[in-house]
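Record type: ASSEMBLY
Status: queued
Input:
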Amino acid sequence: MLKLSKTSKLDGILSWSLQALDTCPGSIGDNGELVAACSGCYATTGNYRFSNVKAPRLENQEDWKSSDWDERMINALESQLYFRWFDSGDMYSIGLAEKILSVMEQTPWVKHWLPIRMRKFAKFQAVLDKMQSLPNVMVRFSSDSVMGEYTSEHGSVIVPDPLQAKGFLCKAYEHEGRCNGCRACYSKDVPLVSYPAHGKKMSKVIKILSIKGA
Ligand code: SF4
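Status: finished
Output:
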């Protein structure tokens, strides 16, 4: 059964998610350790640690393999204008990526926001390029940095402070963590979004990096 989440943070916009880190091969850096952005990941803290939050994500990890999954997703998006993929987790499998592409192609009335790290892996590039070529899809390749470093390929980056924002500054921090009507992440007109770091775990990561002078 499809498990979609609906959070006040996203103004009630639906999301389909998997378990963080377990489905995030892009979270591991060249040195074999978690990259900075994933070390402070919000989806490994707070409510995300509760079994009732983990269970639907684990169920989704099996459910997408069903032959009728894409059809059920398309039906679930029938009355939606926006959709966020992966509030937690990542598009870890090519099979899943091809199914998500099919859902995107068959729901042109929905603006899809797909945050990913899978562009690091060559085998995902063709399917990601097809997604990004669709007028209703914004694929955002997340930078590993929490210090505002990014390349022209990246669509989002974490910055230690709003004053260090590059591109579009996410102002959810001014609205108790809510989008509050903003839809920048879903828009192709916004190539780069800066998310100010938030949460104790992320603050600790930034503090350590700052001490090291990274
Ligand atoms: S940039 Fe806008 S749409 Fe994206 S997370 Fe921030 S408030 Fe939400």
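Annotation: Residues 150 and 196 are 14 Å apart (CA to CA).
Annotation: The pocket of iron/sulfur cluster is lined by residues 170, 172, 179, 182-185, 193 (CB under 6 Å).
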